[in-house]
């Protein structure tokens, strides 16, 4: 849901308390990494504000959500992540 920008679904899933907001995919990326990579600012805000996520989680290549946001030119997300 996070990697596709589905804010309402992310909010619903987090509200259940039954999902791990830091779960990693096959590439070692967390929902925060995927949302930062694809530029979904609202999802990034939601994850940072309502979930216990590690904003510095590294994927298999050692990249963090901040790196992905910067690499893809998502300045607003870079600012959000630097504020954590």
UniProtKB/TrEMBL annotation:
Q: Does the keyword Repeat apply?
A: yes
Start and end residues of the ANK repeats are 61-84
Alphabetically ordered keywords of this record: ANK repeat, Repeat
Q: Which SUPFAM superfamilies does the entry link to?
A: Ankyrin repeat (SSF48403)
Q: Which PROSITE patterns match?
A: ANK_REP_REGION, ANK_REPEAT
Q: Does the keyword rRNA-binding apply?
A: no
At the top level, the lineage of the source is Eukaryota
Q: What is this protein called?
A: Ankyrin repeat-containing domain protein
